[in-house]
Amino acid sequence: MTAPALLPLSGRRIPPLNLGPPSFPHHRATLRLSEKFILLLILSAFITLCFGAFFFLPDSSKHKRFDLGLEDVLIPHVNANKGARDPGGFLIHGPDEPRHREEEERLRNKIRADHEKALEEAKEKLKKSREEIRAEIQTEKNKVVQDIKMKEKKPLPPVPIPKLSGINGGDPEDNDIRMKREKIKEMMKHAWDNYRTYGWGHNELRPIAKKGHSTNIFGSSQMGATIVDALDTLYIMGLHDEFRDGQKWIKESLDFSVNSEVSVFEVNIRFIGGLLAAYYLSGEEIFKIKAVQLAEKLLPAFNTPTGIPWAMVNLKSGVGRNWGWASAGSSILAEFGTLHMEFVHLSYLTGDPVYYKKVMHIRKLLQKMDRPNGLYPNYLNPRTGRWGQYHTSVGGLGDSFYEYLLKAWLMSDKTDIEARNMYDDAIEAIEKHLIKKSRGGLTFIGEWKNGHLEKKMGHLACFAGGMFALGADGSRNKAGHYLELGAEIARTCHESYDRTALKLGPESFKFDGAVEAVAVRQAEKYYILRPEVIETYWYLWRFTHDPRYRQWGWEAALAIEKYCRVSGGFSGVKDVYSSTPAHDDVQQSFFLAETLKYLYLLFSGDDLLPLDHWVFNTEAHPLPVLHLANTTLSGNPAVR
Ligand code: DMJ
């Protein structure tokens, strides 16, 4: 059997005819037939291509027809310059034919550019891993679902406005106090105006570099954190032009559909809290709408096996996770335990119980858990529902969880007895195990780590002086004791300021032998414009009217003015024990939300934001007490 001649490796690929011996006529005939078939196939493909191109290419007559159709729909009156129509509806070219050519050219270029872009995107896609592509698809799917949901959304139900008293006023009678209050307002203007000039739309400001700044808690997007955080301070100070400027930005530019991973806690206390407070103070619907839009974006963070939310959530994809540094993959007590006030208000305003249910679920779960020595550890694993490291603190990682138990009770017009009981139990355990007196007679709150008390108190823990005073009324027959405890904490924190060169407090201070209320490690000597000490002075002032609190507050204001003020705003300092401090070049958003607000309130009359009508969230955003008559969660159409 002779094999047919091999095809050449290059050149013409069609074999010569009559290749094989006559004994294989059938084979040769088959070969010829298939060759013809291939030729036919190529020819027909070519014709199809030409035919397709004829329809596909941006042919001018086709465009004219397409143009005509759209024009009929969108522009009912034919523009005289565009040429007349013949009775059949086709354009008769008039004097502006060159313009049509230009238009065709523009369209052709656009199609070319679109194709190139699509090609580039396809190339980029091919570089990505399977996982990345899958995540992108999921993100797109989520977006579609979200968009459909938003479209289906009914308008928010009308609800009764809780009693709002004291949103203006507080003018002090005393001249000296009035002058001090004016000075604080001027500081606020300096902080705001510089942010307006150099950082507008960014989350925070670098007052020395004079540009925008951000940290990972706000994700990768610029969401104007300072604008949202500062709004209610502007409002109560009567800075209405600035307030309106912020409102305009929020309406036009604040967008939560961003691919950005944010801290659920920080976004809740600063953004949702700030928007809700701005809504209640001004009555402007836009703030309520934005607060609800954002809250919806946070809800996927609760999709964990236990319902304890992740610390972070991607606003676009809804994917959540925890901080890498947290013990055993845990969520943080002060983060998942500081949602209650805002979420109850969201349910109140929307008539949708989903928010309320989320935070009540957290509470129920915590109630069921064993607590070592009656203390709540700072770490809880959202997958297993087990505590992480046994570390309890009233400063960072724990602080506002206790604050929100007390404030949940206050905000409910003292009807949420369960929250009050949890607060009382927690504070009793804290007092027993964490609160001590130093040799020099200073009361401090230490940190409990695996059965050992670390005699160190953070600046953050100084807020507890105010909390103890606020919770005194309604405690288990120990009102005097808690007011006194609050005053002692205020004194200790004041000492931590007074024992520095700048009269500003360090981030954290020790009680160790001869060391009392002083930072030891270099890394703990900074002051980043934090509010907690001034917050405590204000609460103590409201409850006692002891002039020392105004005096201490004024000392702090002067020190901030002297050492933190720069031409581009206010900056933190790196070492409060050095008389020539280096600046950290960050103007934190909480400086405008909290530090300056508490100072302003300290030099205002008690009729401004009275505490029996307003409860301040942990970022100093005032939310009204939901008085019994108004506390329907289903939305009551009676008022508004
Ligand atoms: C603020 O964002 C809040 O007060 C929070 O509860 C913890 N501390 C910062 C300011 O120090």
Automatic annotation (TrEMBL):
Q: What is its EC number?
A: 3.2.1.-
Q: What keywords appear on the UniProt entry?
A: Calcium, Coiled coil, Disulfide bond, Glycosidase, Hydrolase, Membrane, Metal-binding, Signal-anchor, Transmembrane, Transmembrane helix
What does the record say about its membrane topology? Answer: Single-pass type II membrane protein
Q: Which domain of life is it from?
A: Eukaryota
Instruction: Name what cofactor the protein needs.
Output: Ca(2+)
> Where on this chain does Ca(2+) bind?
618
SUPFAM superfamilies cross-referenced by the UniProt entry: Seven-hairpin glycosidases
Q: What class of enzyme is it?
A: hydrolase
Q: Where in the cell is it found?
A: Endomembrane system
- Transmembrane parts of this sequence: 37-57
Tell me which residues this entry annotates as catalytic: 266, 399, 507, 532
> Which is an annotated Pfam family here?
Glyco_hydro_47
Q: Can you name the source organism?
A: Pipistrellus kuhlii
Listed under catalytic activity are:
N(4)-(alpha-D-Man-(1->2)-alpha-D-Man-(1->2)-alpha-D-Man-(1->3)-[alpha-D-Man-(1->3)-[alpha-D-Man-(1->2)-alpha-D-Man-(1->6)]-alpha-D-Man-(1->6)]-beta-D-Man-(1->4)-beta-D-GlcNAc-(1->4)-beta-D-GlcNAc)-L-asparaginyl-[protein] (N-glucan mannose isomer 8A1,2,3B1,3) + 3 H2O = N(4)-(alpha-D-Man-(1->3)-[alpha-D-Man-(1->3)-[alpha-D-Man-(1->6)]-alpha-D-Man-(1->6)]-beta-D-Man-(1->4)-beta-D-GlcNAc-(1->4)-beta-D-GlcNAc)-L-asparaginyl-[protein] (N-glucan mannose isomer 5A1,2) + 3 beta-D-mannose; N(4)-(alpha-D-Man-(1->2)-alpha-D-Man-(1->2)-alpha-D-Man-(1->3)-[alpha-D-Man-(1->2)-alpha-D-Man-(1->3)-[alpha-D-Man-(1->2)-alpha-D-Man-(1->6)]-alpha-D-Man-(1->6)]-beta-D-Man-(1->4)-beta-D-GlcNAc-(1->4)-beta-D-GlcNAc)-L-asparaginyl-[protein] (N-glucan mannose isomer 9A1,2,3B1,2,3) + 4 H2O = N(4)-(alpha-D-Man-(1->3)-[alpha-D-Man-(1->3)-[alpha-D-Man-(1->6)]-alpha-D-Man-(1->6)]-beta-D-Man-(1->4)-beta-D-GlcNAc-(1->4)-beta-D-GlcNAc)-L-asparaginyl-[protein] (N-glucan mannose isomer 5A1,2) + 4 beta-D-mannose
A biological process (GO) annotation for this entry? carbohydrate metabolic process
Q: Which GO terms describe its molecular function?
A: calcium ion binding; mannosyl-oligosaccharide 1,2-alpha-mannosidase activity
Gene Ontology CC terms, in alphabetical order: endoplasmic reticulum; extracellular exosome; Golgi membrane
Q: What does this protein do?
A: Involved in the maturation of Asn-linked oligosaccharides. Progressively trim alpha-1,2-linked mannose residues from Man(9)GlcNAc(2) to produce Man(5)GlcNAc(2).
Instruction: State the name under which the record lists this protein.
Output: alpha-1,2-Mannosidase
